[in-house]
Design brief:
Helix 1 crosses helix 2. The chain folds into 2 domains: 52 residues, Arc Repressor Mutant, subunit A (Orthogonal Bundle), CATH 1.10.10; 140 residues, Tetracycline Repressor, domain 2, CATH 1.10.357. 75% of the residues lie in helices and 0% in strands. By secondary structure, it is mostly helical.
């Protein structure tokens, strides 16, 4: 027999899935709670019961997608031990999650600076935890082992993320023209190539 708590959790999940679809399609300002309720097949007050406000629902939707990004990065990196291969895997997996698996993250990225209250700050902090921090750790490990040049690992991580975000902020037509590989290759062939220490250029450690 299904418990009341299980039903409530199921309805919450259905609302969250509907919210992700709506926000991914129309962004924060372009989406109303009425539309999300209709998409979820729920009454509008139920949204506020589970999430409190539209801003809280948006945050929950983005954090849910960031958690999946974190899981995807973890799965992709778990069998990679070479510093350079881990970097390449991170870049490929990160870009694919924004463009293929979690397109709502790309919408969030474009409207981040216009979000109300401290939403942008909370989302940025979560992103640092699940993505930028992971990349910084990979880079720091490569520097410690002499595979990468001894630079500032945090600055390098933000530079790589910044280049990828620059491509992600392009209009859809421009991204389609470039294709899924050009932005990744830009990072790998230009920026990452400049990070590699001279002693490591002849091998792939």
């Amino acid at each position: 027999m299904t418990s009341t708590a299980t039903v409530r959790e199921s309805r919450r999940d259905e609302i969250l899935v509907a919210a992700i679809r709506c926000f991914a399609s129309r962004g924060f300002e372009g989406t109303s709670t009425r539309e999300i309720a209709r998409e979820a097949g729920a009454k509008q007050p139920l949204l506020y019961y589970h999430f409190g406000s539209k801003a809280d629902l948006y945050l929950a939707a983005v954090l849910d997608q960031l958690d999946r990004l974190h899981d995807g990065l973890g799965a992709a990196l778990c069998n990679e031990h070479s510093h350079l291969r881990r970097l390449r895997t991170f870049v490929r997996t990160y870009y694919d999650h924004f463009t293929i698996f979690e397109p709502g993250l790309t919408v969030c990225l474009r409207e981040l600076s216009g979000l109300p209250g401290d939403l942008a700050e909370q989302i940025s902090a979560a992103h640092r935890r699940v993505a930028t921090g992971v990349l910084q750790s990979i880079i720091a490990g490569g520097m410690a082992d002499g595979v990468l040049r001894p630079l500032d690992a945090e600055a390098c991580a933000y530079a790589i993320i910044g280049i990828l975000h620059g491509f992600l902020r392009l209009r859809l037509g421009a991204r389609q023209r470039l294709g899924p590989d050009a932005p990744v290759q830009q990072v790998l062939d230009v920026y990452l190539a400049g990070l590699v220490a001279d002693a490591a250029r002849d091998g792939d450690r």
